[in-house]
Amino acid sequence: MTHPRLAAAQAIKPFIVDLRRRIHRQPELGFDVHKTAALVARTLGELGIETQTGVGKTGVVAVIGDGEGPVVGIRADMDALPILEDTGLDFASEVSGKMHACGHDAHTAMLLGAAKLLSTHPIHGQIRLFFQPSEEIADDEGISGAPRMIDDGALKGVDRVIALHVDGENYVGQIEVGTGQVSAAVDTFFGHVIGTGGHGARPQVAIDPIWLSTHVLNALYAIPSRRIDPFQPSVLSLGVVRGGEASNVIPRSVYIEGTLRSMDSKVRETLITEVERCFSLARVFGGDYTLKIERGYPSMHNHAGVAETIEATARELLGPDSIVPAMPTMGAEDFSYMTELAPGAMFMLGVRKPGIDAQRVHTPTFMLDEDALPLGSAMLAETALRLLEDARQG
After folding, report:
1. Which 8-state DSSP code applies to residue 85?
2. Does residue 304 sit in the same domain as residue 341?
């Protein structure tokens, strides 16, 4: 027998799908999510839900319930990616070079679906909905959407917080939720290895930054295998190495940019320290360097109790075989800022259609099966209600 919450969500599937497609057609980047936020606020208003706009620059916060008791938060991100869509969908992006290739359109629509389900339910306490901008990128100060909303007080008084993310590798009807550290901290480094440059025919009177960089690069790649405990997850990857314009000109500098990923806070600090040491090799050979390290999102921690509630909800709504084994990822997610302030968890929602190849996020061809949308709405609504009851009972 279908659970009443899931049945109610299936009944409003056209509402959720329509919202998702409208958002998909008009993708927006970073904090510039004005159209999406306006649609969210308008929809919530039509549902009779109290709404505050302009939170964390362009975020929206909605409140459901009588406010007497605990507070449970649900977060959805709204921003898209700078990708040219190549899906062929009849509701494909109408904005060239921008695409909802990570499923944030679906996240927003599913949370609006959950809001509709909750709007007619008597709630003792408060369920607070966070529609967040700029999960994918940070602003000019290096701050993304979650901490901006936190700075504006969105998480004040929240006792539990949950979120979901679409998963194109698991099938519709499956969810994945881990406990403990489930995603990595991310930091980015931007460095210049500096020489003096010169004529390619007279290298002896130049300090060659390309040659200097070979020592720096070899040292950088050795950090995870030689400076980090092999039982501790860590990643150092280089995304940009750029220097020189002509075959007979020794350039003055080489630019190097890379990413650091870690689960453990001590490993995170070691990676940062070792990157600095690697760049300092340039001075050993007579050159110099500059280095900027931009600290990104912390590692995300899923609270065991919240994760257990999500699993129990999934088994009841989606079936006893709906849970798939969870694997930590070295990807990063700024929902981690919220789980630092309140016990919380993010679960992965399967959106893959049977018989279809796995769908990779952040690609021009990413697609999802919209049959998953009411499942996500039902999971968010029912889990929030159960967490509210758990918090009320202490």
Report:
1. -
2. yes
Q: Which amino acid is at 295?
A: R
Catalytic residue of the set 169, 316, 340, 370 = 370
| Whether residues 303 and 170 fall in one domain | yes
CA 98 to chain centre: 17
Domain termination site, one of 278, 295, 312:
295
User: Collapsing DSSP states into helix, strand and coil, what is residue 63?
Assistant: strand
- How many whole angstroms separate alpha carbon 82 and alpha carbon 94? 13
* Total of domains in the chain: 2
Q: What local confidence, expressed as pLDDT, does residue 121 receive? A: 84
* Same domain as 173, residue 32: yes
Out of 171, 289, 297, 337, the active site residue is 297
CATH of the domain at 241: 3.30.70.360
Which amino acid, one-letter code, is at 265?
S
Tokens of 194: 């500096």
Q: Decide: helix, strand or coil at residue 233.
A: coil
Q: Which domain holds residue 345?
A: 4-183+299-392
**Cα–Cα distances in angstroms (integers) from residue 103 to residues 78, 164, 367, in the given order:** 9, 10, 8
The answer to whether residues 32 and 143 belong to one domain is yes
Are 267 and 224 within 8 A, CB to CB?
Answer: no
- Could you list the mean pLDDT of each consecutive 10-residue stretch along the chain, which spans 394 residues? 95 98 98 98 97 98 93 98 98 98 98 97 94 96 97 98 98 98 97 97 97 98 97 98 97 98 98 98 98 97 98 97 95 97 98 94 97 98 96 81
CB of 119 within 8 A of CB of 47? yes
Tell me if 319 sits within 8 A of 169, measured CB to CB. Answer: no
Look at residues 48, 62, 347 and name the one whose alpha carbon lies nearest to residue 178: 347
| 71 plus 200 within the same structural domain | no
Task: Respond yes or no: is residue 50 known to be catalytic.
Answer: no
- Does residue 382 have an active-site annotation? no
DSSP assigned state of 371: T
